[in-house]
Structures are given as structure tokens and as C-alpha cells.
Amino acid sequence: MPRPDTAFLFDLDGTLVDSVYQHVLAWKQALDREGIELSVWRIHRKIGMSGGLFTNILLRETGVDITEERVERLRRFHAEAYQRQAGEGAIRPLPGARELLAYLTEQQLPWAVATSGRMETAAHNLQALGVDPERVPVVTRDQVRFAKPDPDLFLAAAERLGVDIHDALIIGDSIWDMLAAKRARGLGVGLLSGGYGAEELQSAGAFRVYEDPADLLLHIDEVAARR
């Protein structure tokens, strides 16, 4: 059986909830509304990092002027577009996500959620997943100084659980999650459910890669310490 001191720190979008492409389309709508042309695939490559860093990089790539007002407008436009999609029932848990979290709870293994999204968008995902932030440690962009690829989110999540980050597995679907895991000095576990390839995740630091939460649950003994 897994040891109780093995903690699981989860990213949210693309890791527990099937929402990456909804975020991509929401950012596309926000950029179009601002009159900024950018291909969808370029947007996808940035999903997973903090929204502020994300918009700064996108605006730099397009050559348009970066102002605080424009960044704030894009953030607001993106949130509005994403909330419309969430309201239409497009956000659902990934296969095995609820079962994985239920297993960890049953085994008394501590787990938390750490997302680069702000609560205004994360709330829809948590609701779809059945996670109550009043009962489960959830760290959002609103609560830390820097988001991914900085380690702040995962360090804060480990602190909320009262565990040493060195005893934590950091599960995410993007290279930004894996880079943040390395900087936090935790073990990164990659999932393919956000659209990044296995080699990309491994190159960014993942020591194991699985298809989705269901596949991770099937191989849970490969990543959780055993008695």
C-alpha cells in the first residue's frame, strides 16, 4: 500500500478537467476581440503558464504594444469567453479524475489542487470535478506572487497540506507544470491529456508520463511509495 506521506499536487486544466481547448478558444476570442491576430496552435503552446506571463508573451510575439490596460482587458475578455463555455456544460472531468481523487482520499493520501487560473475561471472546473475548495486545499493564481513556470503554486499547495515538497508528486499536463515541479524540487508526473507529447514532458522533467488520470490510477503503484 502507498505510504501516507506521499502527497499529490495536481494541476487542474488538462490534468483533472478536460478544459485546455476551451481555454485556447477563449483566448482566441479575447485576442480577436482586441484586434490581435494569432494562430490557435500558438495559443495552445502557452496554455499552462500564468495568465499575465501568457498575455505578455503573446503580445510580444505579435509585435503589438503591451500596456497594463490591454493585458487587463484580455484577461477579462478571456474570463468572459471561458465562462460562457462553462455555462454551456462544455467543461467535464477527464476520464478517471474523480476515481483517482476518491482513491487517494480513501487511502488517506494527501492531495491538493494548484492552478495558474484565477478562481473566476477555476470555480467552474472545480464544480465540474466535484471538488469543494472549502474542504480541499486549492491554490489559484490569486493567492501567489508568481504562477507557472515558477514554483510558487506547488510550494503553497504543499504548505497548505503540511507536507515537505520533496515528498510530493506534482501532476500536470504541460511543460510549464514540469518546469515548475523541477524548480520546486518535487517529482513531476506528466499526463498527455492536455495535448503535449510524452517526449516534451520528459524533456521538461517528467519522470513518468501517463495518458490521463485513469491511466495514472491504473499504474498508481509506479509513482506512490510502497510500504
From TrEMBL:
Family annotation (SUPFAM superfamilies): HAD-like
Keywords annotated in UniProt: Hydrolase
GO molecular function, one term: sugar-phosphatase activity
Pfam families for this protein: Hydrolase
UniProt KW rRNA processing keyword: no
NCBIfam families linked to this entry: HAD-SF-IA-v1 (TIGR01549), HAD-SF-IA-v3 (TIGR01509)
Protein name in the entry: HAD family hydrolase
Taxonomic path: Bacteria, Pseudomonadati, Pseudomonadota, Gammaproteobacteria, Lysobacterales
